[in-house]
Structure formats: C-alpha cells, structure tokens
Design goal:
The structure is a homodimer of 377-residue chains. With 377 residues, the first copy, chain A, is an alpha/beta fold. Chain A has helices at residues 3-12, 21-26, 72-86, 106-119, 139-147, 211-229, 277-284; strands at residues 31-34, 40-46, 90-94, 124-127, 169-174, 185-191, 241-244, 260-261, 287-292, 301-304, 307-311, 328-338, 344-356, 363-371. Chain A has a single domain (3-371), classed as Purple Acid Phosphatase, chain A, domain 2 (4-Layer Sandwich). Helix content of chain A is 21%, strand content 23%. The longest helix of chain A is centred in the middle third of the chain and has 19 residues, at 211-229. Chain A binds chain B through residues 200-203, 208, 210-212, 214-215, 218, 250, 271, 273-280, 282-283, 285, 305-306, 376-377, and chain B through 200-203, 208, 210-212, 214-215, 218, 250, 271, 273-280, 282-283, 285, 305-306, 376-377. Chains A, B: Residues 41-297 form the Calcineurin-like phosphoesterase domain.
C-alpha cells in the first residue's frame, strides 16, 4: 500500500473527527496503523545504524577497496535502497541508532539517522540501544528528541504508569477497511527499552528488561487480547504480537545451526543474568517473534517454545561488522486471509527474510514465523 | 526473648493506641515483629511438612525399623522438639505444608500442620507450595484459611495491588526498644507464592514468580530502604532482607560442592524457564538470602553475586526423603550490634545452621550469611 493511503486509512479508524495523521502518530493511545487494500503489511527492521557525524564518520570492517569514501552516508543510502526495494509500511529502528561516543551533536545525529524514513513519508518507530546515550543527550533526552521527530510512532513511555527505561510503547495495526476486523488491531507491535549496562554491584555486562516493563507489556497484551476476542466481532485466537528491542535475551543462546536460520558468528551478548522477559512473553501467549540487534554479525532466527527469536544483523557502516559480509536488514511481512465474502479477514501468516547491501540487494533466509491455525510448537 | 514480650513489644511500635497483638498480626500493613532485649532474632524454617490426616498417614522413606507407628504425628513432634530446642521468634513454613492429594479435609490438615506453632504461642508465617491446593481447598482457599488461623502473620496479598498468586506479603522486624532504630525495621522478611505448575502451553514443569509479584517486591524493598535510610535516624546502608518461597530459582543450579555448604542429592526442580526473580532481588539490593524447600534431599546454601540461595531440606515424614538421612530444619539467627551507649544498634550479622531430627537434634553446617560492613561478594 502507498504511504498516503496508509495515513488516510489510519485516520479513518479514530473516533475523533478532528483527528489528523499527526494525532494518529503522537497523541493518545493507541498509536495505530492499518492494513491497506492489498491485504499485507511490511516492516523493515534497521538494527545498529551507529550513526555519528555523517560524511566525516568512517566505515568500520569493510573490505580494503571499500574504505575510501565510505561513511555514515553509506548507511543512509542503504536505508533509501531498502525503502525503494521493499516499500515497507513501517520502519523499525532497534537501537544503537546513533553512536554517541563519536557524535558531536546527538540531536543532529538522530535527525540524520532517521532522515531517510522521514523523507519517504514513512511511519517509523525506534527503541534505544546501549550506545544512543553516549553523546550530548541522556537516554531520556534521546527518546524525547526522537518522539518529537516527524512521522514517528515512537513514545517515551505509557502515560500514568511507573516504568523503567525510555521507549516502552505499543503500536496497533488495524484490519483492512471494510473487513470485519476493520476496528480491531490484527497485529500488535510492542517496543521495549532493554537498557544499556548493568548498574547492579557485582553484575557486569549489558542491561535488561525490568519487571515493571514486563508488567506493562503483559497488561497491554492481556487488554489487546480481550478486545480482539471480545464483542463486537469476537475472534477465536489472539492477534499475533511482534516485539522489538535492542539487546538479545539469554534465551537467544538456546540455538545452534541445527535449529536456526541464518548465522551465528559471535557470542550472544545478552545481559549476564536473566530478567525473565522470555517467560513473560510466553505467559502473554500472543507473541510470535521477538526482534533484536546488538550482535552485528549474528543474523539468525530460531524458534523456542513457539516464539521466534530473531536478530536483524548489523545495518550500519560505522559499526563493527565483518569485512566482506554484507550489511543487512530484516523484513517482516504479514498477509491477511481472504474472507468468505471475498474481502480481507484477519492475519493468515507472518514471514521474514533479510536483504543484503550488495549489488542486487539479495534476499536471503525467507522463513515463515507464524501461520494461522498452526500449532505453536 | 520470650513469646509474650515479643507481642507486647510488637504492639509498642504501632501508632494506634487501640492496637492489639491480633492487629499486629493481621490488620493493616506492616505486619511487624521486634528484636527483644537479648538483641537477637531467630527464625525456624519448616519446609515440606506434607501433612495429610495425622496418625493414619504413614511416613515415607524411613528405615525399616522406623516404619511402624510412624505418621504425620512424627512431623508435629519434630516441630515441637525444634521449638523447645531453638526457642525461635518466628516459624516460617515454606510450602507443601499439607499434601492435598492424601488429605481428607484440607482445612483440618492445615489446622493440624500448624498446630505446634500455635500451641507454642509463636508468630508464624506460611507460603504455598505446589501440593497445598490438591485437596478440598483451592490455592486461594488454602491461603485464606491460613490467614484466618491464630498467631499467623501470613496475608493473602497486599491490598490495592493486582498481583499473581496467593500469599505475597512482607513482615518487618523492628529494632530493640530504646535503641535508635526502635522505630525502624532492621530486618525485612519477604514471602512470595512461587506457584505450582506451568500453565503455559508447551512449557512443562513447575511454576514461577511472576512479573507482577516482582514489581510489588521491588517497590516494597525500595520503600523500606527509603524509610530506613531516611529521617529520622537515617541509616547508612539498607536493612538486610530475607526472602522465603517454595520452589527454587533456576539459579540454584549454579553451585556444586566446591561452593556450597550442605548437600545436593537430587536435581534442582526449578521452573523450566527463568522468570527473573533472582535478577529482581539483585536490583533491589537489600536481599542477603533466599530460602526455599521443594527439593527434600537438597539442603545446601550457596552464595551467588552477594545473595545466598538456601534450601532447608525436607522436614515432613509423609514426604519423599532418603531413609537414614534425617529430616531437618533450617534456623536463621540475626544478632544486633552493640551501640556506643551500650544499648543495641542495628543488625551485626545473620547466621544459619540446620538441625537434624536425630536423638540429639544435631546442629550442622553453621555459616555466616551476612555481616555488617562486609562486601557483598
């Protein structure tokens, strides 16, 4: 579906006649999008841009003949190519959007990093990584700046809830206009702040998703499931949920090449202790996949007790990587079922693949994450 | 200290002049106890009584010459011996208090199981295991019945909080009368319901402590720390916290005989997934030890990133065990520091040991869990 119709349709589902596209994006929950007339919805995940100062910021880990003239601008060019090729309905940036240490002005780095999504008029959502706050803005400052940018669905935090971190919110994707689920969210997107580093004495390493965030997530999921399976037009099973954050869970270490699609070329840099978010996702019951970044040269997806755990693979050029191993992005594609009346129904399947920043933007590792009616295991 | 003075002293710290011992125990937070003039406070932990119908309920896993005449009454006799020998200030029952499957009347089993503590006039607290609800009462029913019994500090749940499970509450232990911390809780006891079995499709095994319980625990800990380190008489570090529940955390599997005191004679029957409570205890920062039951023939204590994880070892005779390996109980002993004026100060150290149900009630495995001013690691 095209961008304009997306926003127009998004507005149709709001109760307030004064609602505008901007209102859809930034005021009053829920932030919502909608499946278009083509019956599909596509999400482009961009992980670890590590954007700093643009043209003057060099590339890391590229082949010798790629070094010259390579900069943050290559990262931006890759986003633009991906948008042209995939025509996504939403772009999700899963943290380390900027590399604060090397950024002279965090606000400016953020503006440049997200510019390709804004230029394309695409709705976009971002969460924080562990490097975003290393520059001239704090974590809260970065998230507040992001929320004020054009076209974003990002929010700092849910209102009226005490919660850890910055950037915990959800986005609802409504059914197609004219379908029985046109007033229901048929795909739910959850965004969480997985923190930066441990602040607990004696515990090193990366941060984690705290209990307060998990309670918010679980309550939100419970409510969305009640609404989806309640009157009017009660549906039989919960709408699929997809979760985006930065740092992998310890459970990402459950896989090897025998049971994942993609590659594992480095260790799983999760927190050194387990804060239980995988368990909370299982309890919620609607989550089909969780998508992270953080480990740039891991790009696999593996399924554990019904939930796919997926890396995107590193996207940014001013970020460690592996020379000769293309920067990449993950695409998620949800398609609607045909209803008996010939119109659209609820979600039939969710697939994923990756695209490489090579000459052909090669598509690799297509896999089905979920199909309606198939067992969880 | 004797039982009577304990209750009298507990009343002194309440603001309401109409407060009674019963009010201390069952109405309005906080439930509180107090260090007595002797400057110490002792907790007896009784794990896995598995009480059913009394005299007609046989013992399991005892030596051939112990079978005859052995019943639930041996469990009660062991509690009475322990109370006489140790003179605890509080008895904590950490679940599987009754063995519901074999109980004809759950309420009656509960009354009999806790009778020795009540007869002794001792304050006591209980949490649920995975067998308590198998009889004529549900989990909620068991906990509601327990809360109505004499002398108990148990509560169903904190008021005004949506929380999973039944039996999540805390108890404050105030400093000695006349000391600078006489109006402060110098030891905090947390009690949680670790559930029974997984209800998540595709996930087998035992239950776990949910995010909602962890948020309540963390908020309670945060508040107690603010009060302890705030005006009047601000203290320099948080009061030590001790946590009691039934099912071991996955982190209990972190130890071997090289780094624990006691024995591991069976696997760690934790939940099959990690719900993050160990992480939440670390975040809280005040917890020095967590005490569980569930695995009857493990009785070790091991220290992980500053928190001791301790089994009590099986107590009850109508429960699996190991013939010839005595039923046992864990004692925790907190002692106060001498203040400069010769009176009592805050807590100096917390020790633990076990007692065996042999002829001499042998004391074994004494170890220091925490000393004031020593590093967490």
């Amino acid at each position: 579906m095209d961008r304009l119709s997306l926003f127009v349709l998004a507005c149709l589902c709001l109760s307030s006649p004064a609602a505008t596209a901007a209102a859809v994006r930034r005021q009053g929950p829920p932030s919502s999008l909608r499946f278009g007339p083509s019956g599909d919805f596509k999400i482009l995940q961009v992980a670890d841009m590590h954007y700093a100062d643009g043209k003057s910021t060099p590339c890391e880990d590229v082949l010798p003949d790629q070094v010259r003239g390579c900069s943050d601008l290559n990262t931006s060019a890759f986003i633009r190519r991906m948008i042209r090729a995939e025509r996504p309905d939403l772009v999700v940036f899963t943290g380390d959007n900027i590399y604060g240490f090397d950024s002279a002005d965090a606000a400016r780095s953020l503006e440049s990093a997200f510019a390709p999504a804004m230029e394309a008029g695409l709705p976009w959502a971002a969460v924080l990584g562990n490097h975003d706050q290393e520059g001239t803005l704090s974590r809260e400052g970065v998230m507040r700046h992001v929320v004020g940018m054009g076209g974003t669905l990002s929010r700092v935090n849910p209102e009226g809830v005490e919660i850890d971190g910055y950037g915990n919110y959800h986005v609802e994707v409504y059914g197609a206009v004219g379908s029985v689920v046109s007033n229901k969210s048929v795909v739910n997107l959850y965004f969480l702040d997985s923190g930066d580093y441990s602040t607990v004495a004696g515990v090193g390493g990366y941060g984690w998703i705290k209990a307060s965030q998990q309670v918010w997530f679980k309550q939100t999921s419970d409510r969305l499931q009640r609404e989806y399976m309640g009157q009017p037009e009660p549906q039989k099973e919960p709408a699929p949920g997809l979760v985006y954050f930065h740092i992998p869970l310890p459970e990402f270490a459950s896989f090897d090449s025998s049971n994942f699609t993609g590659v594992r070329q480095e260790g799983i840099s999760s927190a050194s202790i387990n804060s239980g978010f995988f368990t909370t996702m299982l309890e919620a019951g609607d989550v089909k996949a969780a998508f992270v970044g953080h480990d740039h040269i891991n790009d696999f997806c593996g399924k554990l007790t019904g939930i796919h755990l997926c890396y995107a693979g590193g996207f940014g050029y001013h970020a460690y990587g592996k020379a000769g191993w293309s920067r990449r992005a993950r695409v998620v594609y949800a398609s609607l079922e045909k209803a008996n009346d010939g119109g659209w129904g609820d979600v039939k399947s969710i697939k994923t693949w990756k695209r490489l920043d090579d000459e052909k933007l090669s598509t690799i590792d297509m896999q089905v994450l979920w199909s309606k009616g198939s067992p969880g295991e």
